Amino acid sequence: VTIAPEEAVGPSGTVLAGDVSTAMVEATRQATAHLPQVVVEPIDAAEPNLPAHRADLIAASLVIFFLPDPADALRRWVELLTPTGPLGLATFGPQDEVWKSVDALFDPYLPAEMLDARTSGAHSPFAGDEGMVHLMRSAGLPLVENIAETLTVTFDDVEMWQRWTMSVGQRRMWGLVPEIERPEVLARAAMLLETARDEDGLIRLRQGVRYTVGAKVIS
User: Residue 117: which pLDDT band, with cuts at 50, 70 and 90?
Assistant: First the structure.
């Protein structure tokens, strides 16, 4: 979400990337050190303290549903846009059945607010296209389009899957599983993952992603 805009703005533009995590800010600074157009700062997405009408485009990938008040945050983001600026959000779509079953292994260990981080519940705006359209329009972006894509993630075995989970947000879920119970969770995950192994000998899991773009006017 930082690299693609940098490639689009060219040498005359600037990309401001932000995260509430200081560790993520530092990691992003290191990853983009060779890109002079990129500026990385600590920014709270729920309350971005930035000048109004500054951004020609705002993009947020898998962020909005983690915020305490997504609708309020989105209205704040819209205030940062120039009159013709679009705003794009990436949120989760459907998972395949194996992936859902594997994720469900963590449910007994998670607090209520983490039980459905992908959509925050069946009645939230993140549960479907219509909810995202309503969320965008309520924030002041009447022109809305949803684009769906299915991504395939491939693993050699359960050990590779576990290493991957430790590199994303699921790391926090592992941290909530008592250490003595982690081998059992891993063993059950291995059994489920084996059912997704294809004729090439690889485990393939599929996750839907929804890209929602909103704007005030047609630019």
Answer: very low
The residue among 66, 68, 62, 56 whose CA lies nearest residue 9 is 56
How many Å apart are CA 173 and CA 91, to the nearest integer?
19
Place of tokens 């009408």: 53
Give the separation between CA 147 and CA 209, rounded to whole angstroms. Answer: 8
Provide the pLDDT for residue 7.
84
Contacts (Cβ under 8 Å, ≥6 apart) of 48: 18, 76, 77, 80
Q: What strands lie across the sheet with 87-95, from one edge to the other?
A: 58-61, 87-95, 203-215, 143-155
Average pLDDT, the chain: 92
β-pair partners for 61: 90
Whether 210 and 147 have beta carbons less than 8 Å apart is answered as: yes
Return d(Cα 111, Cα 91) in angstroms, integer. 21
Quick: pLDDT tens for 13-37: 999 999 999 999 999 999 999 999 9
- Burial grade of 188 (CB within 10 A; 0-12, 13-18, 19 or more): middle
Q: How far apart are the first and last CA of the chain?
A: 21
**CA–CA dist 20, 180 (Å, integer):** 32
Q: Which residues pair with 40 in a beta bridge?
A: 17
